[in-house]
């Protein structure tokens, strides 16, 4: 059966994440529903990984298999004509039969956006940022340096997913200013991420920026491998999946 690779962008605000849940709308479920209507039979969509409820994506990658008779459908146009405005298919191409959206991944990059203006949050940006004030960016950068490299990130994994191991290699965390002087974007790229790992890392960096955690304490949290010793999880709305690398 032909395999189709999709690149998908979405606003995650009103969805229960990527993966189909017991109840509530999901990105996977919404796309599968449209594909099933087009093909006249159930079509399963496999994503590069889960994104949590409220998390956004600029370039999530997914694949699905279709009957030979449906191989030449213009999938991008067909799906975009049926999908809601907060989901868009950026690309749809036939992929090699051994391509797998999840298992072929080499690394992923996420961006987390903070809003630091003390008096307001721009309404158009509110669904995509975490509003925090009075941050010491130098302290955050120092803490970020401690996180880069190959470590056991068990202290930054929330419960809920069974995995074989918690060691990951995290590239240096990059901080850049967004389109507004009030926006600061932190980018995280790694060979894999644990459940809510990026949001937990961002929670730690903000705690360091607020002065509640010294950068020198980061190493002890990493080595302790105890989620209870790490700061709280950052909100989902500030997180966006930017790129999946194969």
Describe this structure in words.
There is one protein chain. The protein has 5 helices and 11 strands, in the order E-H-E-E-H-E-E-E-H-E-E-E-E-H-H-E. It has 246 residues and is α+β, with helices and mostly antiparallel strands. The chain folds into 2 domains: 3-95, Alpha-Beta Plaits, CATH 3.30.70.580; 107-245, Pseudouridine synthase I, catalytic domain, C-terminal subdomain (Alpha-Beta Plaits, 2-Layer Sandwich), CATH 3.30.70. The strands form 2 sheets. Strands 1, 2, 3, 4, 5, 6, 9, 10 and 11 form a 9-stranded mixed sheet that branches. Strands 7-8 form a two-stranded antiparallel ribbon. A hairpin with a 5-residue loop joins strand 9 and strand 10. 36% of the residues are buried.
When the domains are counted, the total is 2
Q: What overall form do the CA principal axes indicate?
A: globular
Helices and strands, in N-to-C order?
A: EHEEHEEEHEEEEHHE
CATH topology of the largest domain: Alpha-Beta Plaits
Top CATH class of the largest domain: Alpha Beta
Please give the number of β-strands.
Answer: 11
Gyration radius, in Å = 19 Å
CATH H-level homologous superfamily name of the largest domain: Pseudouridine synthase I, catalytic domain, C-terminal subdomain
Low-confidence stretches: none
C-alpha end-to-end distance: 22 Å
Q: How many strands, what sense, and barrel or not for the largest sheet?
A: 9 strands, mixed
Structural class: alpha+beta
Mean pLDDT: 96
- Give the second-level CATH assignment, the architecture of the largest domain: 2-Layer Sandwich
Tally the helices: what do you get? 5
Q: Considering DSSP H and I runs of 4 or more, what fraction of the residues is helical?
A: 10-25%
Q: What is the strand content?
A: 25-35%
């Amino acid at each position: 059966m032909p395999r189709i690779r999709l690149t998908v962008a979405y606003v995650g605000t009103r969805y229960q994440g990527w993966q189909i849940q017991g109840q509530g709308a999901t990105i996977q479920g919404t796309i599968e529903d449209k594909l099933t209507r087009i093909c006249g039979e159930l079509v399963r969509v496999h994503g590069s990984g889960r994104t949590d409820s409220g998390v956004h994506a600029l370039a999530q990658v997914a694949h699905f298999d279709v009957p030979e008779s449906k191989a030449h459908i213009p999938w991008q146009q067909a799906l975009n004509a049926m999908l809601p405005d907060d989901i868009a298919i950026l690309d749809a191409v036939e992929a090699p039969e051994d391509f797998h959206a999840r298992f072929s991944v080499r690394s992923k990059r996420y961006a987390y956006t903070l809003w630091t203006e003390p008096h307001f949050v721009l309404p158009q940006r509110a669904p995509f940022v975490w509003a925090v004030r009075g941050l010491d960016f130098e302290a955050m950068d120092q803490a970020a340096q401690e996180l880069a490299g190959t470590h056991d990130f068990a202290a930054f994994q929330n419960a809920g997913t069974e995995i074989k191991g918690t060691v990951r290699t995290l590239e240096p965390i990059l901080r850049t200013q967004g389109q507004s002087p009030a926006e600061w974007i932190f980018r995280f790229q790694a060979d894999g991420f644990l459940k809510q790992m990026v949001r937990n890392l961002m929670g730690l960096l903000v705690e360091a920026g607020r002065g509640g955690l010294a950068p020198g304490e980061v190493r002890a949290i990493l080595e302790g491998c105890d989620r209870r010793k790490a700061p709280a999880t950052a909100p989902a709305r500030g997180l966006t999946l930017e790129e999946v690398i194969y």
